[in-house]
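In keeping with the milestone schedule agreed at the kick-off meeting, the structural modelling team has produced records for the first pair of proteins. Each record is given below as a sequence line and a structure-token line. The laboratory manager (R.T.) confirmed that both were archived under the project's standard naming scheme.
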Amino acid sequence: MDSVIAAEIARLENMTVTKLAEKFETLIGEKCRSRNKRYLIRRIAWRLQANAEGGLSERALKRAAELALDSEVRVTPPKHSKSSQAIIAAAASSPVRDRRLPPNGSLLHRDYKGKPIRVLVMEDTFEYDGQVFKTLTEVANAITGSHVNGLQFFKLRSSK
């Protein structure tokens, strides 16, 4: 690389983003849409080197044009059929059950401060002392009066 080009590239580091954008537009001939300084410096440096050393060979340009013709560029996302949308909606509406929880209808037993605790596991809720809770953590918080992880409180955490 020529020392003049190297010095010009080094000066790019000290330029403001506005000055870099102006230089980008004059050098590349396109409107600058980026305000990322690192990106602008790289693009300008590439163009300076390409101008000084001749850019891509005729063979490389021809091959790039061939590849561009063969490629199928999609500008919009594919449209989903109604059946695939129904599958996606069903999957989103039915969350996966935590494998650490016992099956529905099971009773969790635990003694806490000398008092026996019994919690009924239902499909997506838990029943304790006549009340229904959404999570085991809510049950543990109601029992202890402070924030406690429900899986840890009922000793359901998987061992590592």
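The second protein of the pair:
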Amino acid sequence: MIFMTKPFRFSRDTLAIRRLTFYNLEPGKVRQHGEILKDNGLT
């Protein structure tokens, strides 16, 4: 499952989005990976 935020001000002249990815490992257990993307998620 992937969640992405709306663009937010990362610095004075940069907008970014936050992407959280959740991976099912086993019943009742997940792994979360978080990223901040400054290119609107293109790469």
